[in-house]
């Protein structure tokens, strides 16, 4: 199955050998997004500000693929400190309707790129 690389200047450019997202058929796989603005500058501030930036980036990449957060079926959340789970969850939850929220997992990791507190990736399906 041929695939299409998704790239937008409305989200930070990849900082390694990967794509912002890849579309295969009607499924879009969005790479992990961290708290960088579209210009690649680290968003400083607490985990609330970081999580909002991550969601903004993810939304921009999805939009470039012709999709939105409503099309997301699965998210993976990586956090540096699971003690921030409730705060991240509250921000994350504000972007989804609880009745139709995607599947997900949240995993604590020892370190994330650029020493951010949160990274989120997702899978979306056009429908």
Automatic annotation (TrEMBL):
Residue ranges of coiled coil: none
Gene3D superfamilies associated with the record: RutC-like
InterPro entries: RidA (IPR006056), RutC-like_sf (IPR035959), YjgF/YER057c/UK114 (IPR006175)
Pfam families documented for this protein: Ribonuc_L-PSP
SUPFAM superfamilies assigned: YjgF-like
Family in the record: Belongs to the RutC family.
Name this polypeptide is given: RidA family protein
Species in which this protein is naturally found: Hymenobacter saemangeumensis
């Amino acid at each position: 199955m041929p695939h299409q690389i998704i790239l937008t200047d409305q989200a930070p450019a990849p900082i390694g050998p990967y794509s912002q997202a890849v579309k295969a058929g009607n499924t879009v796989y969005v790479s992990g997004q961290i708290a960088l603005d579209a210009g690649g500058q680290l968003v400083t501030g607490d985990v609330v500000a970081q999580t909002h930036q991550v969601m903004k980036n993810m939304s921009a990449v999805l939009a470039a693929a012709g999709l939105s957060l409503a099309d997301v079926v699965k998210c993976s959340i990586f956090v540096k400190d699971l003690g921030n789970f409730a705060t991240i969850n509250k921000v994350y939850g504000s972007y989804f309707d609880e009745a139709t929220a995607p599947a997900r997992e949240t995993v604590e990791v020892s370190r994330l790129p650029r020493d951010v507190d949160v990274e989120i990736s997702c899978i979306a399906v056009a429908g």
